[in-house]
C-alpha cells in the first residue's frame, strides 16, 4: 500500500518504507518525555487463552515510550482476575488491570444507574468508556491509544505509527485512525467494511445527496479499524456508543467536535489479521448480523442529527441502491483478490450482501420506530457534573481491587 495519495478530506500518513523503526521509536521516546502516552487494551478473559495476546504483550514490552497501559478486563470471575494480573505482569511498563465485574466496580455501576447515566449494555463500548474514565481520573497523560487484543499479526511498529501523528508536537492532529489491508489465510477479509460500509456510503450519497459527513467517512480506508489514538484533552466530551457502532461513533464524534483537519489516518501494517466474527444469519443479536445493524443505525443517527430526513420510502430505495452497488464492488474485490493470488468465496460474499441489505431495512425501521433511542454512553464531563466524586472513587476502587487480589 505504499503510495502518497491524499483524498483532500482527512490527511493520510503513508508508510513509504523510507524510515527505520528504530528511528521512529527513538523520536517517540523523545516526545514522550513531555507528552505522556497511555495505551488502553479492552480485553475479554477468553483472549488470555488465545494465541494473539501473548505475542502482543511481547511486542508491547519493547515500547519504552509508553507511560501506562490500562487493561479493561471483561467476563472474568475472581480467580480469572487474579490470573489476568499474573498474565499481564510480564509488562515492564506501569500497568493496571481493571476488573470490570468486581463488586466494587458493580457498585459504581449501580451508582450510575440511580443517576440514569449507566451504559445501556455490556460490551466493548462500556469497557473502553470505563478505561477512559480511569485514565481521566489519573490526569497525567497527554495521548491515549487503543487497539484490540486479538491481532494475530501484531508488531510494535503498529503502535508506534498509530500514536506518532498525535504525539508529535509539530503536528496539529487530535485523532489518528489506523488503516491496513485485511488479509490472512490466503483470503481477502474485512467483509463488513468491503461489503457493507463502502457500498452503503456510496448508496447514501446517491439517495440523500451530497453530505460532507459522507465524504468524510468515505475518506477512511478502513473506517472500522479498532486502532486509534487521541489527545486526551478531547476525551471528557467524547460520547462512546455502547453497541457495535463504536468505531463509526468515534469517527462521528471527531467530526462533530473537531472537524476533518484535526483527524488523520495512518498506515500501520502491511497485513492485518485477527479473530473473525461469524455471519450469524439465524441470530440477529449476534456476530456480523448484529454488527451490521448497529453500524447502519450509527450512520443514520448522525445523518439525521445533521438534518437528513429519513422515511420508510427512503430506506427502501437505499436498500435497492445499496444492493446493486455492493454487487458491483464485489466484482472489483474479486478481481483484485485474484490478481494478488487471494481467494474470495463469491457465494458466501453474496449471502453477506443479502443479509446486510435486509439489515439496512431493519436498522431503518428501528430508527423510525424508536426516535428517542439514546445508545451513547454519557460523556465523562456529564458524569462529573452529576457526581464530582465519581472519577476519584473509580480510581480508588481499581486500586483497592489491585491491592486486595494481589
UniProtKB/TrEMBL annotation:
Superkingdom, taxonomy of origin: Bacteria
Record-linked Gene3D superfamilies: Spore Coat Polysaccharide Biosynthesis Protein SpsA, Chain A (3.90.550.10)
Alphabetical list of InterPro entries matching this protein: Nucleotide-diphossugar_trans (IPR029044)
Protein name: Glucosyl-3-phosphoglycerate synthase
